Each structure stands twice: as structure tokens, then as C-alpha cells.
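dude i think i finally got it to work??
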Amino acid sequence: MRINEIETTVEAGMANASHAASSNIRLYRGMKVVPFQEQFVRAVRQDRVLKNSSPHEGRLFDLYCQMLGFPHRKRNTLSTALTVTQAAWYGITVYQIFPYNNASYLFSTKHKDLLDLATEIDSVWSNAWHKGKFSQFDLPIWSHQHDREQKAEIATAISDEMWAQMLTLIKEELTVKAPLSTTNDINQVAHGKGEVLVYVDQYVAKFYDHLKHGTE
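look at this
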């Protein structure tokens, strides 16, 4: 069972994160750690709360990953970035992250922030709805006269099962406009555009003084 924090030495943690430690790929995360710690080992939460995206966007993203057969969800992954600059957007204290060797990495070759990917999914789905591609479903007729609030209310009322069926119908278009890739090899993350979601039990974090060493 994963827990929020575990009693493990950093040395032991780095041995378990040998793939990340030996790679040229660097993953960073902006965090708020009180009291400040130079380095620590932590388990990934299973109930992470969305901070930078709406529940609707998070739901779309999770269902899209489910449709593709990926285990990654917004609530059970660690959000990291390939650059210090992007990591610092989400927290001024930046740590270099070393996931354990059983990690699975998810990234986009098009979108720097996966929130943009969720927005793309919503856009593709809205256009398909407007063009009548979901006519077999009992959905209200949507037109451009509907405002964002009305559309959001309709989207919220749609069941996860129906969402999954609709996303499957537009899967080909989605995989072009909202590409996602997964790998167990951290070196393959080099093909990513920016944000990398890490599905893993535990990781080591080491403080990265970007004010001293600079950004990448």
C-alpha cells in the first residue's frame, strides 16, 4: 500500500532509483516542503487533488488515459517537468526527482503542459458533438449559441461510461491532436514536450538550487 511518506534512507532510495540516477534525463518538480528538506524519499499519493485544472478537465484526461489502457491518472501520479523553468511555475522550491525503477512515464510530443491536452480533448469532442457524431446518444443539441457554462453543465451530466464510448468514437482524431506516449525507459522521455506524469510507488527528491545553478 502506498503512503504519503515512508521511512527510507536517501541512499537506499537512490539504489532503487538507479535508472533515473544514471540517465542524462533530468526530471524536476516545484514543491512546497515545510519544513525545508535538502533531500527525502516519499511515496506517491493516490488521492492527489487537482490544483491547476478543473474537475471536468481532470475527468477528461483520466478517461482518455483509461481508453488508451494507461494506468496514469491525475490523482495517482507525480507531475514532473523536463526543465527547471516549467517546474518552478508550480512551486518556487525545485527538486530533482529520481523515480524508482518500476516507474512508468507518460508524456506528450505536442503539448508542453498536459492541461493543454485536456483542453484539446474537450475541443475535439465538442466539434464532434456539434457535427452529430454522437447522434446515437441521448444528448441535448448543442450549438454555438450555448455559452461555456451551459456546455460545462451538459458535460458534467454525462456518465463516465458514455464519455468512454464517445471518446472511442473519435479516438483516431484524438490520437493525432492529443498524442500521448508511455514508456518504462526514462531515456525515452527525451521525446516529450514538457510535463511528464510518473506512475510509480516511490521516488527520491533532491533540492536543486536553480537560483545558483540556473535553469535549463
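Residues 114-130 form the longest helix (17 residues).
im so relieved honestly
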